[in-house]
Design brief:
Elements lengths: L2 H15 L4 H4 L41 H21 L28 E3 L7 H4 L1 H7 L1 H8 L2 E5 L7 H4 L23 H13 L3 E6 L4 H5 L6 H14 L2 H8 L3 H18 L3 H12 L4 E6 H9 L20 E6 L3 H12 L11 E7 L2 E7 L4 E3 L10 E8 L6 E6 L12 E6 L3 H5 L6 E9 L2 E6 L4 H12 L3 E7 L3 E3 L4 H5 L11 H5 L5 E2 L9 H21 L9 E3 L6 E3 L4 H13 L5 H13 L5 H20 L8 E5 L25 H7 L1 H9 L1 E5 L3 H12 L9 E5 L24 H9 L7 E4 L13 H7 L2 E4 L4 H14 L2 E8 L2 E7 L20 H5 L5 H32 L4 H11 L1 H15 L13 H33 L37 H25 L6 H4 L6 H14 L14 H16 L19 H15 L7 H8 L7 H20 L8 E5 L4 E5 L6 E5 L2 E4 L4 E3 L12 H11 L6 E8 L2 E5 H4 L3 H4 L3 H14 L23 H11 L3 E10 L5 E3 ...
Parallel strand pairs: 2-3, 2-5, 3-4, 5-6, 16-19, 20-21, 20-23, 21-22, 23-24, 30-35
Antiparallel strand pairs: 1-4, 6-7, 7-19, 8-15, 9-10, 9-14, 10-13, 11-12, 11-14, 12-13, 17-18, 24-25, 25-26, 26-27, 28-29, 31-32, 31-33, 33-34, 33-35
Helix pairs in contact: 1-3, 3-11, 5-6, 8-10, 8-13, 8-23, 10-13, 14-15, 20-21, 20-22, 21-22, 23-41, 24-25, 26-41, 31-33, 31-38, 31-39, 32-33, 32-38, 33-38, 34-35, 35-37, 35-39, 39-40, 45-46
Protein name: Ubiquitin-activating enzyme E1 C-terminal domain-containing protein
Pathway: Protein modification; protein ubiquitination
Pfam families: E1_UFD, ThiF, UBA_E1_SCCH
């Protein structure tokens, strides 16, 4: 293809592109993201010569463009679209903003400001993507997050020109850490914050470009491992290899022109890492708009400068939006003061200041600061839903009727404190229940006990006071709940704290603020309340600024050589940097040196040049959460400093032998980590085999952190990850390794492909379940030799307990992490030292009693669970039941025998119910004779029958059943003890029935209107799901749309039903009922339909699909039952959470617990003592951080003065003379005695393998035949005889499974058991011993019988 022809094709493509939607087309201008303007296209200017972004593709012209440039733009788009098809990348995920309302074009015509805008092509589906986060934040707060503008000011790094133009098979994935220049590396903390905020769904992120002067000296990217890893990952994703190859296939003459143009562009953009970060954010979340502005422009906007200009309100003027939050990351104090002052500028005009957050790390120390203004309103301090507590009785004070004593129901405990505001809730008629009743709010004045407290009724008008007191005393008040109230907090600015007397740079009075406990939020109960530690860290942070100002660089660890500017040489210095730094700290803090202070200062000076990945991830998580608090008013913010460090990891580090010069580990992945902790730890991490169980939210964060830390990068090392789940849209708001195109893929496979962008580590990805399975990669060999340490990222206790048992059994370390909304925990299990995960357990969640669900609900969770069970019964259990019996019913001439079988198997009542269900489910088919299931007439018939069925069940569930219950237990009935039956948790229900609006002369109440609407919704979705059980599941989308039942259809059918139906007459209770005849009547009705052998479709509850009607059905059914029992109803969102058992989740909490897990992994690999390990319990909402030392392993036995713990094993092996598989039971007993060092006064009492007893001395001590049998044969006999002793016929002396043919009498299950047993590398036996004189028994540690044969020497 010639150059002229290519340009012709390009011109045709340009003309065709004019017909594309402007918002979409404006994004499609090729893969080059680093050129001037819009790929050289000059912006269209208005009459005032103000630059405007391209708003419509029709504005694009070819004027001023070279042919090669136009061809490059359009042909680049072809490559981009091809790449999308090949790799699944979102070619249109980032492009120039085309929305005028959200435009952030510079108000200046100068091209030097270089503002950039990136936004998504279309609005993202918030409800699905952020569903788990919405349950933690709530709809109100989530909406505010989506309207938030987060302004991030931090070291952006640079674009590596040589790397962009490099060619190679793997593109940027082949970029070795040694090829990265330290000045090119961005702040890892900046990327971490941007990642957390983007995944949280902030509406807009503005990146601030300014790394000149002092701030550039304050940050050293050479030792920022996380920044380097993110940099590699971003380059690999923004410039994938497929696109590079497509670009390299162009003709040589065009490439010469293109390279020239591109070089010019890179001259302008080579120091702009903000554009790369913007592109990376767009790939993390296409729904986030990203802009790039200079700090000067940001300061101008924060101060509101130029607002008096006549064109300030122009639609294209830069704006920070209605909900901005300013964030400084890894910036100096001088920069923080300047930006914080600008945020406070608006306070001078009585306007609300812009919330300000700063976060930085230095080595193993971090600092967070928040200033949300002088009057920040906290809407909800903890985010917890107030618990409704049942009331036994209420006593009104005789002397002061405003004082009321509340006694909780027996077994209930309140959650109120003095000063809290509570609101009473009560049981009343449907009219009052719908409006919330008229129950007063009261203030708690005294707490007498966990079940009793006193409140003061708020004053009311005299006309209302008597009514309110009657409401409290007449028994209608049944429960209460805390009422959340807003709280206003006053923050001080950074300058007011550091320089309270002036606006100068004099910080001589800074130590005064360091002693103010009110300014520091505790982050560690052991460290935060140590004033010396606080003073040392704050002084070190201040001295760091002084050091950089004086020397123009960050301090080195111990060198006494200073670099000479412009020369590759250095000069000897009188003092080391650490000594200089200590001098500055003493000057700043105005204190004399002390041992404790000097130790912290020395550690700070020795590590502050580098960045530590776990600490960066911790700071990024907490910092991002504070941004969300500032934007929403949800949760309690940090006031105002939060200091967190992990200097315990420095213990046992030898500065004289373990640290090398930077040049010695230039090629390492984790340079900063090696600088802080030494070569030995980095090499150990690189060679470790780390098993990650789960690749979800926590698993992704762990993989990112570990890859960035250099884990698994040596030949021996590996990251092993397994997860059976596939990626869903709701995962994307927390799992940074996945993209929209990955939805439906296995998590482990997608995570492996993505994490390789961070480093060239070895990764094994599996989709196998971790459990006691027969086959799979995780066998005995894997647990004993295939992994060194295990990190749990699981979501269920059963799997956690299994992994824990394997780790204890094989002496492997375990770190377990979990989250629940803003709360998280980390537990570390140190081999041979600490207790295990299974040593303690949380109390199980109480089950809802069946009687409560069936007849006496008093909480909305009860009605939701009832509706969820109803869904499973109607649309899963019943169709399966019909499919199981349809053939049997169709083949029988007489169904009497079948009816008798039902009665014998299930009982009379259950048999009647089952026959009625079969009659309903199979008896609807006679009308389908001769009709095709896709025929419109058939569909209409199914729809009519389904509506009739739904109406009859609505009447039965919400009217007939309740009427029958009230007949049995009237509202004024008494129980056996003479007390009122309907009291305590029992609520008197009210029958609900659809009433046509024109049914009578009386007016229909508002409550009845709500009941009608809810019944209509129930009928609508019940009929729709019923239809889908009968219609062919392989119908096309067009035909399946007929399965939808509209609300109008339901209302119309209900009105017709109400007009022709009268209440059924009561059956005579004394009349004997012929059960068999009733069953046969129903079954005969089912026989006709069963003769067509229909197969009904089963429906599994799917909570995340809003179009399938599942949640809508459960919501309607639950709310109807709640109305009947006077329980406040719930919306679809809350119903989905309870019915779907959804666990609220947030990326911030996930990032925090993952970082803490990696921190504990470092300690474990270093072999630190148990007292330096920490279990973590955190709540970012409060915020609350509790770190406790793991408990030591409990002693399980003591024999002959020797103690044993759960980690101990007594190992028994075979020998050349007595191989393991032929070792007799007697020989095994002798070896156990020898290995356990048992004396003559002790003998083996019994031996068990799991639940199977294989030896007991009181039965088998003289059984020579058993004692002479091979141990393995004895075990197999015990297992098989336990499985089925009557049917196995297993011969004595059965040989090893797999070597001989199994007995034909064995069942398949028994064969599987033997096969599994034969593959085990070792067996663990439980052995008890007893003292021969006293008969006292002791339990030995598990006896591990190794089956491997010993090779001859």
């Amino acid at each position: 293809m010639t150059f002229i022809f290519r340009c012709t094709v390009a011109s045709i493509l340009l003309v065709l592109s004019l017909h594309i939607d402007s918002a979409s087309a404006s994004s499609r201008f090729g893969p080059r993201l680093f050129s001037r303007g819009l790929m050289g296209i000059e912006p269209v200017k208005n009459a005032n010569s103000r630059e405007r972004p391209i708003q419509n593709v029709h504005h694009v012209t070819t004027w001023g463009l070279s042919k090669s440039r136009l061809s490059r733009i359009l042909l680049g788009e072809v490559a981009r679209r091809s790449l999308t098809a090949i790799r699944g990348g979102d070619a249109d995920s980032a492009h120039v903003n085309t929305d005028k309302k959200n435009s952030s074009s510079s108000s200046s015509s100068s091209s030097q400001t270089k503002e950039r805008q990136f936004t998504s092509k279309k609005k993202d589906n918030d409800d699905e993507r952020y569903s788990r986060q919405m349950y933690a934040l709530g709809a109100r707060a989530h909406g505010l997050v989506r309207s938030t503008t987060a302004i991030l000011d931090g070291p952006m790094g640079k674009i590596i020109k040589s790397s962009i133009s490099q060619n190679g098979e793997h593109g940027f994935r082949s970029l070795h850490p040694g090829q990265q220049n330290g000045k090119d590396i961005p702040s890892g903390l900046l990327y971490e914050m941007a990642k957390n905020l983007a995944l949280s769904g902030v509406g807009r992120i503005i990146l601030v470009r300014n790394d000149d002067g002092f701030d550039a000296q304050y940050f050293d990217g050479t030792l920022d491992d996380l920044g380097a890893a993110y940099h590699r990952a971003a380059l690999a994703e923004v410039f994938p290899e497929s696109e590079k190859r497509a670009m390299n296939e162009r003709d040589e003459d065009e490439m010469e022109v293109e390279d020239e143009d591109f070089s010019d562009e890179m001259d302008d953009e080579k120091e702009d890492g903000a554009v790369l970060l913007a592109e990376y954010i767009q790939r993390l979340n296409p729904g986030v708009q990203v802009d790039v502005l200079t700090r000067a422009k940001i300061l101008e906007l924060l101060r509101g400068e130029n607002q008096d200009d006549e064109d300030w309100d122009d639609e294209n003027t830069v704006s920070l939006g209605s909900n901005p939050v300013m964030v400084c990351i890894d910036r100096s104090v001088a920069s923080m003061l300047e930006v914080n002052d600008a945020c406070r500028f608006r306070c001078q005009t009585d306007s609300q200041s812009v919330p300000f957050v700063s976060v930085k790390t230095a080595g193993v120390y971090s600092q967070l600061f928040c200033d949300f203004g002088p009057s920040f309103v906290v809407v909800d301090e903890d985010g917890e839903t107030p618990r409704s507590t049942l009331i036994d009785n209420i006593e009104i004070d005789d002397e002061n009727n405003q004082i009321v004593t509340v006694n909780c129901l027996d077994g209930e405990r309140h959650d109120v404190s003095s000063g809290d505001l509570i609101e009473f809730q009560g049981e009343s008629g449907p009219d009052e229940a719908s409006s919330g009743g008229s129950f007063p709010r009261c203030e708690v004045v005294a707490v007498k006990s966990p079940a009793c407290f006193t409140v003061k009724v708020q004053k009311q008008d005299e006309s209302k006071e008597e009514s309110l007191l009657n409401t409290l005393s007449d028994g209608r008040t049944r429960s209460f709940a805390r009422v959340k109230v807003t709280r206003t907090i006053s923050f001080s600015s950074l300058r007011e704290i550091l320089q309270p007397d002036s606006h100068t740079d004099d910080d001589s009075k800074a130590p005064e603020c360091w002693d103010n406990d009110a300014l520091f939020a505790p982050s560690d109960l052991d460290k935060s309340f140590d004033p010396q530690r606080r003073k040392a860290i704050m002084a070190s942070m201040a001295a760091l600024d002084k050091f950089v100002t004086k020397y123009g660089r960050l301090p080195n660890r111990s060198s006494k050589e200073l670099p000479v500017d412009g020369k590759d040489e250095s000069v000897k210095a009188k003092r080391s940097d650490v000594e200089r730094f200590q001098s500055l700290v003493r000057k700043v803090s105005n204190t004399e040196s002390s041992a404790s202070l000097d130790k912290i200062v020395t550690q700070f000076a020795s590590t502050c040049r580098a960045k530590f990945i776990p600490l960066q991830a911790i700071a990024g998580a907490v910092g991002a959460q504070e941004v969300l608090k500032a934007a929403t008013g949800l949760y309690n913010p940090v006031r105002q400093f939060l200091l967190f460090d992990c200097d315990e990891v420095l213990e046992s580090c030898d500065a004289n032998s373990k640290y090398s010069d930077l040049d010695d580990y230039r090629e390492l992945v984790a340079k900063g980590q090696t600088y802080i902790l030494g070569n030995e730890l980095s090499q150990k991490l690189a060679s470790s085999r780390i098993f990650l169980v789960g690749a979800g939210a926590i698993g992704c964060e762990l993989l990112k952190n570990l890859a960035s830390m250099g884990a698994g990068t040596s030949k021996q090392g590996c990251l092993i990850v397994t997860d059976m789940d596939t990626i869903e849209k709701s995962n994307l708001s927390r799992q940074l390794l996945f993209r929209d195109i990955d939805v439906g893929e296995f998590k482990s496979a997608a995570a492996k492909a993505s994490v390789l962008r961070f480093s060239n580590c070895n990764v094994e990805a599996h989709t196998s379940r971790v459990g006691d399975e027969e086959d799979g990669p995780f066998d005995d060999d894997f647990w004993s030799t295939g992994c060194d340490v295990v990190l749990n990222a699981l979501d269920n206790v059963e799997a956690r307990l299994f992994v824990d048992s394997q780790c204890v059994s094989n002496g492997r370390g375990l770190i377990d992490a979990g989250t629940l909304g803003p709360k998280g925990n980390v537990q570390v299990v140190v081999p041979h030292l600490s207790e295990s995960y299974g040593s303690s357990s949380d109390p199980p969640e109480p089950d809802i009693p069946v009687c409560t669900l069936k007849n006496f609900p008093y909480d909305i969770s009860h009605t939701i669970q009832w509706a969820r069970d109803l869904f499973d019964g109607y649309f899963n259990r019943r169709p399966r039941q019909a499919n199981d019996h349809v053939a049997e019913i169709a083949q029988m001439e007489d169904l009497t025998d079948f009816a008798h079988m039902l009665i014998r198997k299930f009982g009379e009542d259950a048999a009647v119910d089952m026959s009625e269900e079969l009659g309903e489910d199979l008896g609807v088919f006679p009308f389908a004779v001769g009709l095709d299931s896709n025929d419109p007439e058939y569909i209409a018939s199914v729809k009519m029958a389904s509506l009739k069925w739904a109406i009859s069940h609505a009447d039965r569930l919400f009217y007939t059943t309740i009427v029958e219950l009230l007949k049995k237990h009237p509202a004024d009935s008494l129980d056996e003890d003479g007390a009122p039956f309907w009291t305590g948790s029992r609520r008197v229900p009210s029958p609900l029935k659809f009433t046509a609006l024109n049914a009578g002369e009386d007016e229909v109440s508002a409550q009845q209107v709500m009941i009608n609407e809810s019944i209509a919704q129930f009928v609508q979705f019940a009929a729709r799901l019923r239809m889908e059980s009968f219609l062919a599941s392989d119908q096309s989308e067009e035909e399946s749309s007929h399965t939808l039942v509209s609300l109008e259809d339901a209302l119309s059918s209900l009105e017709k039903h109400a007009s022709v139906t009268q209440d059924k007459k009561e059956q005579d209770a004394d009349k004997e009922r012929d059960v068999l005849a009733a069953i046969l009547e129903k079954l005969n009705g089912a026989k006709t339909g069963a003769s067509f052998l229909p197969k009904l479709n089963l429906v599994d509850f799917e909570k995340d699909d809003e179009t399938n009607g599942h949640v809508s059905f459960v919501t309607a059914a639950s709310n109807l039952r709640a109305m009947a029992y006077g329980i406040p109803t719930a919306d679809a969102m809350e119903t989905r959470r309870v019915a779907g058992r959804i666990v609220p989740a947030m990326i911030t909490t996930t990032g925090l617990v993952s970082a803490l897990s990696c921190l504990e992994l470092i300690k474990m690999l270093k072999g630190l003592p148990l007292v330096l390990h920490r279990n973590a319990f955190v709540n970012l909402a409060l915020p609350f951080f509790a770190f406790t030392c793991p408990l030591p392993a409990d002693q399980v036995s003591e024999i002959n003065g020797k103690t044993f713990t759960m980690w101990d094993r007594i190992v028994v092996k075979g020998s050349n003379k007595a191989p393991a598989d032929t070792m007799t039971l007697k020989k095994f007993i002798d070896k156990v005695k020898k290995q356990a060092q048992l004396g003559d006064d002790m003998e083996i009492s019994n031996i068990s393998y799991g639940p199977y007893m294989i030896y007991a001395n009181f039965l088998n001590s003289e059984d020579e035949e058993l004692l002479g049998s091979p141990l393995m044969d004895t075990v197999k006999s015990a297992v098989i005889s336990e499985e089925d002793s009557a049917e196995t016929g297993l011969d004595e002396g059965v040989e090893e499974a797999g070597c001989t043919k199994l007995d034909d009498n064995l069942t398949e299950e028994q064969k599987a058991v033997l096969s599994k047993l034969s593959r085990k590398r070792y067996l663990d036996f439980s052995v008890a011993v007893e003292l021969t004189e006293t008969g006292e028994e002791y339990e030995l540690p598990p006896i591990r019988f190794i089956r491997e044969k010993i090779d001859p020497k």
